[in-house]
Amino acid sequence: MSGTAQIGVTGLAVMGRNLARNFARNGLTVAVHNRTAAKTRALVEEFGEEGRFVPAESAEEFVAALERPRRLVVMVKAGEATDAVIEEFAPLLEEGDVIIDGGNAHFEDTRRRERELRERGIHFVGAGVSGGEEGALHGPSIMPGGSAESYASLGPLLERIAARAPDGTPCVTHVGPDGAGHFVKMVHNGIEYADMQLIAEAYHLLRAVAGYSPAKIAETFRGWNTGRLDSYLIEITAEVLAHVDAATGGPFVDVVADRAEQKGTGRWTVQIALDLGVPVSGIAEAVFARSLSGHADLREVSRTLAGPTPEPLDEKAAEAFAAQVEQALYASKIVSYAQGFHQIRAGSEQYGWDVDLGSVASIWRAGCIIRAAFLDRIRAAYDAEPELVSLLADKRFGEEIGAAQDDWRAVVAAAVRGGVPVPGFSAALAHYDALRAERLPAALTQGQRDFFGAHTYRRVDREGSFHTLWGDDRSEVTAG
Fold it and tell me: What is the pLDDT of residue 312?
């Protein structure tokens, strides 16, 4: 078998199969391989007319089918399965060849794999791919890391299959070295968790406080999707809420068990944020909300706890409240995105990646799950000021949130009065207030730490670390 395929895909479950089809549909010759050869044959038999596929039943055939430098996309389960595939194929490759992991790998695993393969002369690219199975087929947002040399070889191929932003720009960029791509994809998923939680809270408020039906809320969301909240998640939320269950004839949302699952990337985002010391409270609350929803026994024994019951509003008041919820949702979403971009900046500084935040916002404008109209403005904000510390420091976003804050506070207050849990809205507002506060109670916290553990503190009026001798004399000593 001669090396004629420009790229290869091994692992032909739904995502791998659709990526292979996407490459073929865009004029590339694609080698395809799966541990179970029947899947390889099935892909060619069913979709062979879409382009040029080169089926391979063995690792040796697969590698032989690829032109140099070989570009091999691995689409298998993250973790041990990925390591097993790498160990199977790496001995068959040559210096300058490229292995691309398109799964949801932990970025530290990607850093390890990149380092180990670099020592063998092989490039390793951890590429975050967002958009689900539809995106994989029709155009995802792609976040590749790895060496600049590997992107020079791989980039033009990825640009062919990536989603296109409204201005025609391919939604793919070289994010940075080693694990940068998978780190950015992880944070993307963390923002996704927060975004979905905020939307769910808006739905809950409109139903419990405004008294809207799911169909009415779907209509409301469709209206919001024509304005500044225009996004994929708002769009599909309207579709879900409008859907009628065929079996019962009632709203689909009412027959779905209220237990949200998760695959782990949201948890990773929060865990790594803790390691980096970055406040991502909105993302954390979204992760915890999913966790709480799954504790059926805990929820069951707690249902008799005392609390208020919200009284549905009249039509005019409900309409006014819905407008306030739109303000709160928009402001909270901006805070969540700001937290995510802050975490990317912190990770970039920690690992020396030099991630361009404007480019990240640019490639999230289409294809990915969190694609939204305001990402173009986020891109513009970072392009204008690459060292922008926070999106909230951008003049336009700051003004919009300032204009929304009264309604935002009113919504959170109404939720508290009505006993409706809004951890995402509340956390976003608390984050906003903490950032704008001239003094935080952390001064007291540090005093407590010095009292019980001699952890020292810093002063506002002179340099150095200090410790108070917490005896009768309350004397202060310089600690260093």
Answer: 82
